[in-house]
Amino acid sequence: MIAEYDRHLAATPAGEGRYDVEVPAGWAVGGGINGGFLLSLMVNALRDALPAMPDPLATSAHFLSASVPGPAQVVVGVRREGGSVATADVELVQGGVTRIAATVTCGDLDRFAARGSASDRSLAEPLALPPIEECFASADAPDEVKAFVAMLGRFDLRLDPAHAGWGGGTPGGTGVVQSWWRLDDGREPDVVSLLTAVDVLPPVTFDLGLPGWAPTIELTAYVRARPAPGWLRIRHATKQLAGGLFEEDCEVWDSADRLVAQSRQLALVPRPMPS
Amino acid sequence: MIAEYDRHLAATPAGEGRYDVEVPAGWAVGGGINGGFLLSLMVNALRDALPAMPDPLATSAHFLSASVPGPAQVVVGVRREGGSVATADVELVQGGVTRIAATVTCGDLDRFAARGSASDRSLAEPLALPPIEECFASADAPDEVKAFVAMLGRFDLRLDPAHAGWGGGTPGGTGVVQSWWRLDDGREPDVVSLLTAVDVLPPVTFDLGLPGWAPTIELTAYVRARPAPGWLRIRHATKQLAGGLFEEDCEVWDSADRLVAQSRQLALVPRPMPS
């Protein structure tokens, strides 16, 4: 059986670096589409274009216009090949309009691991979360939330209650949201799904009493290792809201306690609801 | 008097989004040129092309080949204009070869500040450094270091001794480097020089006993506010070295205790010296 996630990622080569894809309504959040999933969709097509460089080491993306469910094209333009990395421009286009303009530097993490192990070290503690069964399950979200956030039907999210007071109307003000996460159908994490993982939690602004859609302006993600099977642990945190903009840092840890992905995004603070 | 830094940033419009610039030998680090300065050079030209959007909110850059001192062109391609932000591809080219491929989303921070103040808040403590006179001054670096790192003649750097043990051969292993910093000639910081600031300290690998040049693969910087006059405080930190790659996070604080810039870069761990 092909997992739903992989069906959603499907890309059909259309020649000259172009791939036909379908933006699935199943990854909608309100009127928009989850940006992390769209990056996975783009990078999955890029891997077809650059098979010797399967790992998206650094993906930087500027969000130019709002994607909608339906047909789209991923357009890959390789900028440099050879040596230990390759760099490509990768765009998501709908009806002639660029939705996302990304640049991706990719490589082969196995080759990097083989040469780099002497200097390997971690200066961070693995993300500590309460046991999964003590966390708030996305499956238990109210029906109206599930209807608005269609992507909640694509995965299992288990939020740390210490940063989820907003769910009961009492945001903690910590500027942190953290969670266990795994895809449906037992689909194990890989370097492609890590790009979904870095943008899949509710924005940290929820815990600051500012609910609502927080449109991403720019997101850069680094994939640091191929993730081990099992649950991922994800942490979002912010340091500053200024001028209606905030940054959101993300760490993703795998079941082997490795820091497998890092990202930062600049986003717009949700506007207050009209009262 | 025009400050040396501004003379080094000079860009001459050459039509169709092209600007003639000169990569100054004065910003060399060994055989390379400081990447942050090159981003300032690129963004300074971009500001001429998009005068209504003077602030580089998000700059993401992939470093494709090594820049050398001498003539270069900055090539600006505007991707989207209108609304509160604009996005442009900005490249640094020498002899027909792209050195740096960047995408910049810019806007006007005054307009953002005017609409966003209700939600403004900081969740981070301003960077605390020892008094300037207790820090290690770049002016006191050994002559052979100054000869190798030409850019040390462009500014005044005052390293926190708590993370500068490597200077005396005893790296602290903290994965942190932090410093006061200001440009020569009393040239005050602005949004352009912040892009220099995020890459101007020695790499955090120095404090991990891994001295040497750490080539940047990708760097993304967010400018969060226009800096107040005076010294900047800069902190670099890393969480992980894996497969010969490390990430370096940067915060820049201004004299008014505001977090004015953030960046993260993915770089290659310096290779051990042959023994």
TrEMBL record, chains A, B:
Domain of life: Bacteria
SUPFAM superfamilies assigned to the protein according to its UniProt record, in alphabetical order: Thioesterase/thiol ester dehydrase-isomerase
Record-annotated Acyl-CoA thioesterase-like C-terminal domain positions: 141-269
Domain Acyl-CoA thioesterase-like N-terminal HotDog positions: 24-107
PANTHER family: CHROMOSOME 23, WHOLE GENOME SHOTGUN SEQUENCE, THIOESTERASE DOMAIN-CONTAINING PROTEIN
Protein name: Thioesterase family protein
